[in-house]
Records
---
Amino acid sequence: MEKKIVIVGAVAAGPKAACRLKRLQPDWDITLVDQDSLISYGGCGIPYYVSGDVSDESELRATSFHVVRDEKFFQEAKGIKVQTRTRAISIDRQRKVVQVERLESGQEEELPYDKLILATGAKPFALPIPGVELDGVFTIANLHKAIEIRKRIAQGKVSNAVVIGGGAIGIEMAEALKDLWGVETSLVELEPQLLPCIVDWPFAAMLKNHLQENGVQVFTGESATEILANAEGKVCGVKTGMRTLEADLVIVAVGVRPRSELAREAGLSVAPWGGIRVNQRLQTSDPDIYAAGDCVASTSVVTGRETYAPLGSLANREGRALADNLAGIPTRFKGVCGSFIMKAFERCIATTGISYEAALAEGYDADYALTSPPDRAHFFPNQSVVILQLVFDRRTRRVLGVQGFGMMNDSLSARIDTAAGLIAAGATIEDFSDVEMAYAPPFSSAIDSINAVAYVAENLCDGRMRQLDLDRFLAWMEDMSSQPDWLALDIRHPLEAEPYVERYGREKWLAVQYEQMRERYQEIPEGKTCIILCNAGTRSYEVQVFLDHLGKSDSMVLGGGLNVVSRLEPDWYIK
Ligand SMILES: Cc1cc2nc3c(=O)[nH]c(=O)nc-3n(C[C@H](O)[C@H](O)[C@H](O)COP(=O)(O)OP(=O)(O)OC[C@H]3O[C@@H](n4cnc5c(N)ncnc54)[C@H](O)[C@@H]3O)c2cc1C
């Protein structure tokens, strides 16, 4: 029997649901409604359009066979009706009609439905400071804003830019401005680290260091308090608690919130923070209304709790699962891992599951293994180090999250995607040790980095390895008198270790090369706690086992070794 389907929102989740549904139920009458004139675009491509990597905005709206996805395309190619510049203003659930307003004419109309889909997405969080309404201040709310930003830059109107917000969108926009256009760009983040609540601080700190190396000034732990105007009323700067930054363009990217007013006003169940509540079939509290994408509250497959994951990948998968359910194919969307990846200049940062900090906050008996293996066979040309961390629960040995920082290539994404699949299935450390990865030297190592980080986690969990947290090590390096009994045991090549011995003296920094440990271990003084240091942490573990065997069981390994420290570049680090 033919059904009338109305879908509100036509960017990612809406069109995905519409197209899948039309394929499954060709006779159904499907109408997509959107208040915007530009629809079905790859919002994730916006930073690459602004940078110029993507030459024209229409590429973000085109299919892989180069046809622009506009109203005509949906009608002719897909048999789906599209009404743009049409805003849904209310839902009458009793009568099953959506009240819409035609934005060009102001006319109101009713659209009857058998099933309604809400794919209303998210809206940028409004920063409550003076000056946000000034000419030259933008949020990345839609493609129009991106077009306007790029136009201004291309016209040579932008020399200095300030990005407020150190989340993924802010960082990607900062790179876009600096990298290809050479705009002097500063980024201000209120929290003490970039990507707050997404990655742990060492990963955020590595990213910050890399942005700064590439000329983006990054100010973390600093709040933007006012956006300043010049005499013509145009933006000219941003004031923070600590400085004033010049700007002829300001991008405000301080997070997004679910756009759920329509749902809330219709009496649907909505989380206090705004996410529309849906069951695993993407059905809201009204069985005739479904929802998907950035407007919904998701469930974390790690914690089982409600979470917010506004991601294009999820919007598309949810849209498809929703359509299946409507068409009579029972499909469960079980929840989200929160898999995330982004490029920043020549680096890549990625995560899946939850961070160590989040795991502690959730009450897990959390610990982590931190490693820095090569991203392909160590003898292969152009191999590079990838920093990989696995977060686990000591009590159940379940893996809770994996995060990484490496070169801008496919190495990290392959590991994160593997981890996401395992974590969603509730995998333990041993499952990660066992997972079979494809190997050839140009792609990976014979002992894959995802297996290797799990081996370290096993050793930690079983007490075969004792590690020193990175933050405790860095604190000691700032003030060695805080732990007078600690001694750095540097087992690297003398060329790497000796400059430190010269600086700190043998009482604080002892250099005994790994290969000579078995003949020189007696040089290690009694009564000292050795922090064993090498580049990756692997040799350090071996030396720890050797010292334990000799009854010297008071040593600690710096997980991930100096490879991690070198990416943070603290003041004391000798390049
Ligand atoms: C700069 C940027 C970079 C991103 N990068 C990535 C990335 O790399 N990876 C990733 O996974 N995700 C990324 N995202 C997120 C991704 O774009 C979103 O998750 C995705 O667009 C969500 O799709 P959606 O259909 O749920 O909602 P939206 O894209 O927000 O679309 C919702 C649509 O509904 C319309 N609408 C809302 N209310 C009404 C109403 N009452 N009546 C009519 N129309 C209405 C809106 O105008 C909008 O057009 C990025 C986002 C941005 C902005």
---
Amino acid sequence: MRKLVHLASWFLGAKFLGRQAPLQTVLFINNQCNLACRHCNIYRRDSHLTKSYETIREELAYAHSLGSRFVDFEGGEPMLWRDGTHDLNSLIRLAKSVGFYSATVTTNAQLPFQGCEADSIWVSLDGAAGGHDLIRGEGAFERLVKNIAECGHPRLSVNMVINRLNYGEVRGTIEFAAANPRIKSISLNFHTPFPGTEELFLDWETRRRVIDEIIELKKSGLPIMNSVSGLNLMKGEDYVKRCWVTNFIMPDGSRFPECQGKSAGVCDRCGFCMAGEMHSVFSFKPDTILAGLKLRMG
Ligand SMILES: C[S@@+](CC[C@H](N)C(=O)[O-])C[C@H]1O[C@@H](n2cnc3c(N)ncnc32)[C@H](O)[C@@H]1O
């Protein structure tokens, strides 16, 4: 109920009073990673940054003071995070004690994560027939499948980022997710060409074809999180983006009121599904509002 009231007042304030407060925070707790994915510009193999428990406490309090009530812990690889006796579960409990309604984790699932106390877990899955390992390194898919099978978490979804290397595997990846009893749903994003990863950007014509295929699969009943309205918007870049819905706190502690796509100058090639989903929510598209409520309230 608390969540619903907060969501309603946040939406009404944003829609009718022009308030721009974040609903959710992406908090990077490290940049250390156990993979070196070809599409990623966050991880560092050399000079690692790992935040302390106290720093994360301050950053959570700051995000909460802005109005954010949903936090996603990201990295690097969040499952690697430790500070003395504190581990990732300590951060999830900390977020709740600060006042967040839910704490989620985005992971590459290369380490076992039984007992993870996150409200939901997002596992990054970039293919089911070789594409995943091509992007993330040999053996990554096999470890992911094993760790998902053993995790026992009731609210696990996967997130695919579609690029020039894996666009031919979209159907197979969605079918893989649908057939895996541990996976609740799949969300589909496109590669956003941050500096150094431009060559993976998928041309617009292919993107439109892939989106039509995703919509067809969604209509056939497969568990795709994206709404049809949001997917249709992602076929082009000509819509208002409300990226202030999420604020970002980076591994080095820098704080951004919105996605760093803006400072990187890549919003015209944005592939993050939340951009389209948020536009559709603010345009009162019922399918997107339902998908959003399912995500936040489920
Ligand atoms: C930076 S990773 C960190 C968390 C974790 N190590 C993982 O692999 O899921 C978080 C998410 O960002 C996605 N991502 C990385 N680079 C991207 C890009 N250029 N465009 C879109 N999504 C990207 C990843 O696929 C992953 O789902």
